[in-house]
Design a protein that fits this description.
Two copies of one chain form a homodimer. The first copy, chain A, is built from twelve helices and 17 strands. Chain A is an alpha+beta fold. In chain A, strands 3, 4, 5, 6, 7, 8, 15, 16 and 17 form a nine-stranded mixed beta sheet that branches. In chain A, helix 1 crosses helix 12, helix 3 packs across helix 12 and helix 10 packs across helix 12. Chain A is elongated. The interface between A and B is large, with 58 and 59 residues. Chains A, B: Its cofactor is Zn(2+); Mn(2+).
Chain lengths: ~400, ~400
Amino acid sequence: MPGINSRFDGKRVLADLNALRAIGAYKTGVHKPTFSEPHLRSLDWLAEQLPDAGLVATIDGIGNVLGTSAKAGPKLLAGSHLESQNHAGWLDGPLGVIYALEAARVINTDPGTNGAVEVAAWCDEEGHFGSFLGSRSFVDAVTDADIDAARDRSSDRTMRQALRDAGFAGRARLTAEPSRHIGYLEAHIEQGDTLESSGLKIGVVTSIVGIWQYRISFTGAQNHAGTTRMAVRRDAGLALARFCVAIDDSFPALCGPRTVWTTGRITLDPGAPSIIPGGAEMLFQIRDDNPEVIARLEAQLHRLAAEATAQGRCDVKVERIRTGVPAMMTPAFQDAIEAASAACAGGKSIRMPSGAGHDAQVLATVMPAAMLFVPSIGGISHHWSENTDDADIVTGAEVFVETCRRLLAG
Amino acid sequence: MPGINSRFDGKRVLADLNALRAIGAYKTGVHKPTFSEPHLRSLDWLAEQLPDAGLVATIDGIGNVLGTSAKAGPKLLAGSHLESQNHAGWLDGPLGVIYALEAARVINTDPGTNGAVEVAAWCDEEGHFGSFLGSRSFVDAVTDADIDAARDRSSDRTMRQALRDAGFAGRARLTAEPSRHIGYLEAHIEQGDTLESSGLKIGVVTSIVGIWQYRISFTGAQNHAGTTRMAVRRDAGLALARFCVAIDDSFPALCGPRTVWTTGRITLDPGAPSIIPGGAEMLFQIRDDNPEVIARLEAQLHRLAAEATAQGRCDVKVERIRTGVPAMMTPAFQDAIEAASAACAGGKSIRMPSGAGHDAQVLATVMPAAMLFVPSIGGISHHWSENTDDADIVTGAEVFVETCRRLLAG
């Protein structure tokens, strides 16, 4: 039915997103863990929409949904994911899938537009079973042994069992055909407040930052909290608190413009109210897209540890337990998003890194890749109250479709 | 057999302590939780020694061992406890019991010495089942319902079951007879390094400090550790770290000479490496024997909380969850210990508060009470490596026996 769907329709985008929100609704958000019943129903829902966009739908052996086109000309891959964090928002994932679906509907059925958009929903971007298992499977970076080992972090159900329960066991896993796609495009809510706080509508993602993670351990002397004088204590918990403050006081002068760092977990040993902790540990994370910035900050961590150790109360050890690899987004694709923003969003765009991980960083290992962000109200995400103004959702969709058109036009 | 035992015997004191160490030995210490088999064997061992000290032994319905004398004249109650912390030291408890036993052997069998020493081993001073249940039972501060509710913190065995297993169920619980005793005397290892670091041999305890405990809660905003800019974060964990440091920076100017304070437990919510903690909590304890000092420090906690809250990032709430009552030791008894130290320990004594809790604080609610400390090597306690030089153990025992003599002499 060429031409029938060929005009962009913002109302249709909103209706589709609300249809997905109705599946597994939780307050104003959704509860759709990977391979849960509402997640599987969402995959089926998408597979049912794809033919209207001129696509043949497949759900593969790891739960990826892929819509492929027989149309002549270049192919652009686009999508995101359909599962959610537990009791989380309605847009994190579905927004990018529905933008891709809308682009496919507009472009694939229009004989006047060159090439086609192929739509993907990558399974388990939210990491219930692992780390980007769906998109990593598509770029051939997941082995059968990886799947054998994967378990749901909430229920402990194995991924194999979940695949059997879903009816996906035994299906082939689809992988990227070399040179089939000119690249990958993904839209997402920003999950921060950069766009909202500056009145902008589109974030042109320059890179997806890498995550460097550290275990910082403090060894003092466990002792009685009543009988040990303050002057002779070697309190590992206090050393940890001073270290956190020293990081926060010294990092701003050394970091990049968008570096973020977080102490997410603190443990005292033994953690009893009447015992001076002899040991303490913190999990510390730095995110940036510039390894030189990370090198400076990591050197500072070691300097602070050496200074604290030299004071003789506690030994401080800094151990890197995760090394980040930033994914740089393709510059020509960034230019296309910016041009589309100028055409459809009054130029209200800004180039910015993504502090969160996305499937685009995985696809970027095998093809040109890019992302665009729309504003998040209050910067909230991973919570059921996550939201974006309907008008911003529609503007983002227009920019997305226009970007696809421009990329396919070459 | 009057006179046979009437000479102080330091070798006998050491032999007895080593006999108790052999029951439930763990490395150079012991593992003797309340109502464990080695603990029960230790109670029986003590009951077997008491007749040689002219005492009639009873093990009562809560596991207290009491040796009572029929000798004319004043009675002094003396003792400590026989159970240990898990995998802990050999002297914490037994030292005070064996000193009392030695004093009873020397004094009770000597017709030339006025009055008698009655020996007690209080059950569960180490709090496996509760808080000072044995000595509190003796001062009539434990109800049957309290015992019904008590459970072993390690094994979850009820106290009732443990009493049945030990064969103590159904026995009466002994309580203090009004005006039977002129007072209570207890010896203990210091569990700190005040004596060792100053070359002293005897600590004359002036008071047993009270413990005031606080829950300090920090409420910020949970958010994504990758997408939330540093400038807009409301990180409850960082607020907690700054609070710990502010306490440590400001308390020294406000505290008393022996005040101690400890943050024993820290919890971040949700405690995940990629999430900015929206909540944090610390358990904080202050020990002192002067409620005015506590009032100053508590006011400072509230001032720091108000200042931190006023900065607008996190709300800080300080909640007192345990109010301490310091136990003052009887001045005339302190004088007697000091005089005995002058006679038997070259005057190498110092008056000092006890930062740890002891049964003496419970006995002090119904009769005059006092304590003396002997040095702890390295200040170590609640660990199997806890120790005191044999010579210091013997000196302490001599001072203890001489103190008993002086108190009974009136």
